[in-house]
Amino acid sequence: ICAVLLFLSKLSIRRYCHDTRGSMYMWLTALAGLAILSLSFLKTYFGPYFAQDCAFIWRSLKLGIRLTKYKKSKPFYSLLDHFLDGAKRHPDKVFVHFEGHQYSYAEVDKQSSKVARALQAEAKLKEGDTVALFLPNEPVYMWTFLGLAKLGCPAALLNFNIRSKSLLHCFSCCGAKVLITSPELQDAVEEVLPTLTEQGISVYILSDSCRVPGIEPLAGKISNASDEPLSKELRANVTVRSTALYIYTSGTTGLPKAAVVTHERVWAACFIQAAVGVTADDIFYINLPLYHSAGFLIGMAGGIERGMTMVLRRKFSASQFWNDCRKYNVTVMQYIGETLRYLCNTPKRDEDRQHRVRFAIGNGARTDIWTEFLNRFGDIHVRELYGATEGNIGFINYTNKVGVVGRINYLHKFFFPHTLIKFDIEKEEPVRNSDGLCIEASRGETGLLVGKITKRSPFVGYAANKTQTDKKRLHDVLKKGDLYFNTGDLLQIDSENFVYFMDRVGDTFRWKGENVATSEVGDILTTANSILEANVYGVKVEGHEGRIGMAAVTLKEGEDFDCADAYKQVVTYLPAYARPRFIRLQPCLEVTGTFKMKKVKLVEEGFNPVNISDRLYFLDTEKKTYIPLTEEMYNAIMSLEIKL
Question: Residue limits of the AMP-binding enzyme C-terminal domain (predicted)?
């Protein structure tokens, strides 16, 4: 259409313009008018988001071409190679700010070489050996990963909140023979050290000394190691399909699963910053844990891909957030849904809009909090994401429309085929027709998101967990023999192609930005002296993102609920976000015909003592026990007087 209009306008100008100057003037005027007319026409025909669609598609195409080039290059061009090139181009540029210290690209490069050489000498690491990182948010996390990459070694990113059984499970399922930890996590490692020792695991701590037999100090060895570059031959066999990382995600087994992240997946994830318009001149603020795919892949790896400066914080602090942003001239921030709420709950200040943040990248922002955040802190482009660490389909809301997690376009659907299918919430399974095929959800109807498994959009699965990997594969979806990845999430697509996240199905719910496996929590509850069975689920709470933990339990015969003991068990063995805040005592637990515990009715009933005849209890952190939940307490929780 544009070409035809341009041709006709050109003929018209040539016919009616005679002198050169007049011809040029009319030519420019016609072009300007044509551009305005064309843009107006395209916006009318394709909608008000046409320009944003075009910009995003163009950036995505360029990134796709880059990834194809990297994949075909021999040897394979990894994120590490990109970092090393960046260190050569701008060695003095600040790589990361941390607690008053700053480290340049050259310094991080040298430090990572020292780590690699120390581990090579002490742990005898070779290409392909997996190393588990049990570390807090510190710069050493970053250069230890880079050091391992220089040796061609995958890194398993352990959640530093896990303990005991969960820690051992996460460590063992990735097949690691080496564990690296820090002094502040030494106690947690000592709990499982006998088992690690029995299995012949080498444990290293990033300190100058350690008196615990079986834990070797590594800091001094790193300091004395050479910082000379390492040969590429050490990682000569690393390909785009090789495992780069293991990142842990909760599932229905009750214990975290190790999602296999290939080098191809690392590139795809770290391109997210580039896809939304972040540049090398931006400064990225990482306050999410580096063991998370958000903090590690989108944050750190994305920062390396952009060649930017990052600001790392040990943990999120709402009171210090904007001070940090002003101090370091932060232009891009990360968030999870709760992050924005915490920021909105801080006391209002005159300088709330005095910052340079232009992008906020994350997921889980509730519409009301999203709006409040923008109204208070200014014109920040919120780029809400949807995706899973192990998944093969994701979305980005590259527009400024509030409340959506993404937008469908033809290019995205071509390269990453997906669909929404009808899902039976009660039976927790897809609805199928008489031919045994799934039924696609209508536009505007909530459905289960599934992504077609192809060479371009693979699903690698979980380490040492074939059962759970197979459970995520859905067969015979739209035609016999096809194969899709089951996201386990309910989404909706409206008439304008915007994508909305509706809910999560199955045995996992999300609270405080963390996935919680209900069966893992149930296993801990049943270790309490008085509890026989436990059915764990998440319930919505007004004013909070996600679902908070609640459990319906039955008691052992002749026992009364031992509040203090139940509290002790959950606090000892579960991280804060996974602890059930509400307990409901029931005479028996309702199950399905296949003996699966029913949750739907319990979730709908919530925890209002007015509507529930069963005894209810609330986890009181101040009194360090579970206490009876009264109507007054319920009202205080709903009015946000009691913080959760």
Answer: 521-596
